[in-house]
Amino acid sequence: MSETVSPAGKAPGRADAGGPDANRWKALAFIAIAQLMVVLDATIVNIALPSAQQDLGISDGNRQWVVTAYALAFGGLLLFGGRIADLWGRKRAFVVGLGGFALASALGGAATNEAMMFGARALQGAFGALLAPAALSLLAVMFTDGKERAKAFGIYGAIAGGGGAVGLILGGFLTEYLDWRWTFFVNIPFAVVAAAGAYFVIREPKGGRNRSPLDVPGVILSTLGLVALVYGFTRAESEGWNDTLTIGMFVASAVLLAAFVAVEARVKAPLLPLRVITERNRGGVYLSLGLAIIAMFGLFLFLTYYLQVVKGYSPVKTGFAFLPMIAGMITGSTQIGARLMTRVPPRLLMGPGFLVAAVGMLLLTQLEIGTSYAAVLLPGMLLLGLGMGTAFMPAMSLATLGVEQRDSGVASAMVNTSQQVGGAIGTALLNTIAASATTAYVADHIGGASGRAQQQLVQLQGQVQGYTSAIWFAVGILVAAAAIALTLINAGRPGGTAVAGSSDAAAENEAAVPVAMH
């Protein structure tokens, strides 16, 4: 692909208005390392949790806070983090986020009591909320050529989707062969390499900062509203949906987020300009992606328990059992999504992608105690990964395509917010469905079980019944995500047809780059 040479005779590929940055592919490598670190952290700690709980004397009632403290800080501060990236500059926010994440990880690995652990996890979440939108928005402003953007977001989408499963493998290895503390310490080399590379390689395009004063009421309302929402779903998982505080959290969240929207419609420099989410295509992406994550996060949880508790797999073997899903995601993202993204409209990748994933889920509803891994789990996970990878890739790109540069950080934050909130909802909602189905099954069948062995068998059958009941709901959620993608998203192929609602500045920037398919 030829690169532009500016009229002044500058070397090709310099980071200016005349053409793309020559170092953009090197920059992508370091952005990918950072994204992998953040996504890994979502699952790697889950495998280490039982060992950490025992070492630090964390009670059963408090152990959820190792996961919840991270989720609350990350989910609650994402919009603020995206706005800070637009204000400071994405490169600076990216490097600061990496440094803070590494320090918080070191603190978590060195934790001597539960308070230190919970504090470290909250800090990780806060710096992750700065880092994640900065990473995605850097890609959005550095890759403007249609075909290159497809490849870059293909790689990013594969990591975003498959990184969680990689975390299960790495977490298993580190916990089994070293120590649970290494599930924290392993972040430090990732962060150091990514920060050093970013500092020397990334050249952010000029003129893309949003120097408007910070919308303080918006920050407070959005943070409190999102924290209340995530905590409501997290609490529902452990305390039930009828719990007074759970209901109070949902009511508070609805009031705070409604107030946030009202404030954003009136202030001069909003934290989340409503133009970012009311544009039809981006709204469709945020909604369908959030639904797909609900289905997927619940499945990760069930399959981990099924493989370890029901099938008796070790943590390492469980991690390896997820490899077909990772392979499917990488193939779907880099080989199908990236190759077709410049040829077909995004909805024709996202809709069918979610449907293929739903077929994979449908296979997994057939799980029983003695189910063959090769006959059911392998093809189910392969199809799930293939479909999700194909759908994630155009979703990641379309979510930031056509936004003004000054809004790219907050648009990227919305992608991450839909993922984080979707993850919290998925874990709580599907876990509750599974627990109810298990309880009902055991109550119906335990009376006919004679002897301890028979009773244990009924308990295991009840667990599997619970997982398959919840997976049926996940199938329905994925079909709904496909319907939303096919109905709401009407953009043409990226690089070929302008996205509705794109700014003049973005259109000019696109036109300045010679794209083969224009």
From TrEMBL:
Write down the InterPro entries for this protein, in alphabetical order.
EmrB-like (IPR004638), MFS (IPR011701), MFS_dom (IPR020846), MFS_trans_sf (IPR036259), Sugar_transporter_CS (IPR005829)
Q: Which domain of life is it from?
A: Bacteria
Q: Where in the cell is it found?
A: Cell membrane
Q: Which residues form the Major facilitator superfamily (MFS) profile domain?
A: 27-493
Give the originating organism.
Actinospica acidiphila
Sorted alphabetically, which Pfam families does this protein's record hold?
MFS_1
Gene3D superfamilies (alphabetical): MFS general substrate transporter like domains, Multidrug resistance protein D
| Entry's Gene Ontology cellular component terms | plasma membrane
Q: Keywords for this entry? A: Cell membrane, Membrane, Transmembrane, Transmembrane helix, Transport
Name the NCBIfam families for this protein. Answer: efflux_EmrB
Any one Gene Ontology molecular-function term assigned to this protein's record: transmembrane transporter activity
Provide the topology term for how it sits in the membrane.
Answer: Multi-pass membrane protein
Q: Where are the transmembrane segments?
A: 27-49, 64-81, 93-111, 123-143, 155-174, 180-202, 214-233, 245-263, 284-307, 319-336, 348-367, 373-396, 470-489
Protein known as: MFS transporter
